[in-house]
Amino acid sequence: ATGAATHVVGLIAALQAVDGVQVRVVYGPPGLPRRNIATTAGNLLIDLAWTHLALPVLALVHRAQVLHAPFNWAPVVAPCPVVVTIHDLAWERVPQTFPGYFRRYARLFTKLSARRAARVRPGTEGVARRAGGGAGITAGRPACGSAGAPSPQPC
Fold first, then answer.
1. Dihedral sign of CA atoms 86, 4, 14, 57 in order
2. pLDDT tens digits for 24-71?
């Protein structure tokens, strides 16, 4: 499992251990096999539809009190406060390893998500240091502690 997936599993367990906290976990649809520009475009459309249409509707239907987006970007509009965890800014650190369209997409939606979120969680202390103001994590921005902490703290 990835570091982000390990974090999510730990966070779910920590939240479920808190009295009165009910956790509903939802997963997006599977992506298309990466074969060509058409499947890449298809995956972008799937991701956009899931993130910006399906998630807000699910949050509304289930009367969510908070929506946690654990992988950098969150719905542009949500019916409840949003917490976003920014795990990685690799497209900023090693841009030559990512296509230009992905770098633009990731930069735009990470910044939008961080600016609109009620809380921003850096996935690691390193992400918090590297992000500076670039991803919307700034000294005055409401933020929770690092998600890399041994026992995740609900925020």
1. positive
2. 999 899 999 999 999 989 999 999 999 999 999 999 999 999 999 988
